[in-house]
Predict the structure.
Amino acid sequence: MALWETLTESINHYTGLSPAAFFTILALMYVTYKVVCGMFVAADDYAAVKRANEFALREPVQMGDVTEEELRAYDGSDPSKPLLMAIKGQIYDVSRSRMFYGPGGPYALFAGRDASRALALMSFDPKDLTGNIEGLSASELEVLQDWEYKFMEKYVKVGQLVSKNTSESKETGNESEASKHAENKSEEKQKEGHETQ
Ligand code: HEM
């Protein structure tokens, strides 16, 4: 506690800022740094980036119904899997923007998640990493709507989030079951995905 007080007093003394303002500026500087870094590639990383790009250029695979738990596996930690992100329960393949959403990217925290609330609030707070948009104001919902339009325009929709007990095939939590299910729906959803672009 004393340490925290010393820290906040020092911040105020040296910067003239309140701790909240100081940490907000620090977070914004971090995002700026990560975004700018993402624009450059170290020579050693070139081969890895090339492999990632090859993957990103693959045709998005339709997933059909996916639970939140299953979606987590598509957060970019496994480079052989597509990078997925959801807005308002609709899942998009964001593999082509691996520099934003892939590991180490400025928006990596959104990958494998429904980030609706965080996007509506323009927040990086982990507690806002949810598809629950209850209690948002009209202007926040409008911000979210703009994000949704951006994603519909830029990415292919590859599925939708379902609650765990909606689909019987999901109850095992078995990914191969999910894949089989996705395959069945593949053609139909592929069309739908392209329509939304
Ligand atoms: C200092 C603050 C920020 C800076 C400098 C910044 C900068 C940028 C830049 C340069 C891009 C690339 C735009 C493009 O090429 O299409 C971008 C994309 C993006 N920003 Fe930020 N941003 C900031 C804050 C935020 C916040 C607070 C959020 C949400 C919580 C956010 C979410 C996003 C997302 C999701 C994308 C990627 C959109 C896509 O997939 O095309 N940004 N940002």
Q: What stands out?
A: Helices lie at 2-15, 19-38, 46-56, 68-72, 98-101, 116-121, 138-154, 175-195.
